[in-house]
């Protein structure tokens, strides 16, 4: 059975069976956003890998009043500010905000290097019996009958199936060249028999099958007979034991099979089918599907017996394929490798056994036994390598699988490291920006197996099932969670502490915030918490004093501003603007209106005003007061772009490109500086820089 479709697991193969955010009761991810003042507020959204979506600034009036430096706050409505800026734009050419326009796409690096960790449980689809769980229960002393009853609820063990013939499609030959080449002792097909050790080639000529003989797998071939039927069987005999089995001729050697081989032509397609009795088939399946060595562990034979019954029941309950066979030899049905293989041709080639005495013993001890439904039908008993601790339900009731935690099970809990670039490419969305689990089956840790997820990338947005994600990413199962890697999480914490607080993070802060980020918290959460601390507010006030007034903050002014922000009377970003309106700033300008306007432009915009700008704002000072200048110039797009550029320097260590300057300037005016901090600090570029600055 397939790990992803039908249910088996092959412990011997390089198997390829078929991740999660914290979610609320409705399956949505809960994240904390950041308002314009840097405070946090809970809302439903997605936790993005490498970018963060911020909230919308609340409309209304901004009222600010604080003591210190002789500053008096002003009251003004947002609508009044927009009208003022529109007038200024018309008169002076300043760029005003058009609130009806949506923001352009932000410019930031999409290098895809942000690392993710996918943590999951189990290997395979999880329906029916878990093989590792069967071993766990066996080692606890459970007999195979109890193990089967646990996993296949609603069925009963019956010993009435006998030993019928089954037909197994050997899929590596399906649709290939029209020849079937076999070797062995006493070969016979149709009316043709080959004494001793010989070689036969069955060639479909479009209307009949030519039976040809030759001296070796390479020919030359001579037609001995022609059979008109579309199904021709070739058998072997004349020798005992493994010597008497029919063998294929293949480029890398041969495979020996019990029973006979058939060439079937159905709808123009050629198939090779092994006709074999069920117990001989189960001998091959049991050895391929469950390590025979488990039979040598304490009570491990109980697990092997359970496997043989499950394999027999699954086989006898299967439906015909296009070839007419009811089974195949791959994980699409059950893995079946025949009795032995060789690396060369001829009777003397060394054999590698594909059966095992312990699996053979379990098969013999359960001969004829199957699981039957309440209606008396043989149950199609799917199984997989490891359930992770809960079966997935389906045909059989979902049950806790405590046996899956058996020592040595590498699939009970597993991890996979990837990047947002690699994961996004595999998921078909470009660079992965967010992964939100929207549904789980409710069985087991983290809510169980993923049933649906929303995947957002730089080129596409997709809604996928958990199994689709599993197959795309090459995961072991659809029971998984997705989180940041510990190293990347720690680097982000240390970078944000340094950029927002100006110091290294204490070890406890790194540990706690790294754990939260790995668990699904966003960079917005951390930015919001840090920017709402007393430490951050004091640092910002001191920076504002140094930049605007050119001096350190006095204790009274520092305390007054910080208290006003803490009380919610203004935002931390208002402090710097209000200092431009202070009597101290006006006095430092010589108490001259024109000099005051010039100093506002020089300090805030880094340039002198034009004569027209100076005349306009001097008139505004004299008609409405200094606040109109400080507020008006501060709220211009030019000033907003300058502040956005400052965040580029703080977080990214560089100047912005023009598109980034324009975009974030608009965002700053429309939605607040907190949104800009979150957006730039949540970019892929910031994460990549954090890893370079703070390597693991």
UniProtKB/TrEMBL annotation:
Residues covered by the Sporulation stage II protein D amidase enhancer LytB N-terminal domain: 271-371
UniProt-listed InterPro entries: DUF4214, PBS_linker_sf, SpoIID/LytB_N
Domain DUF4214 residues, every copy: 480-536, 580-640
Biased composition (Low complexity): 39-54
Composition bias, Acidic residues: 12-25
Residue spans crossing the bilayer: none
Region (Disordered): 1-54, 356-375
Biased composition annotated in UniProt, kind: Polar residues: 360-372
Biased amino acid composition, Basic and acidic residues: 1-11, 26-35
Pfam families, alphabetized: DUF4214, SpoIID
Listed name of the protein: SpoIID/LytB domain protein
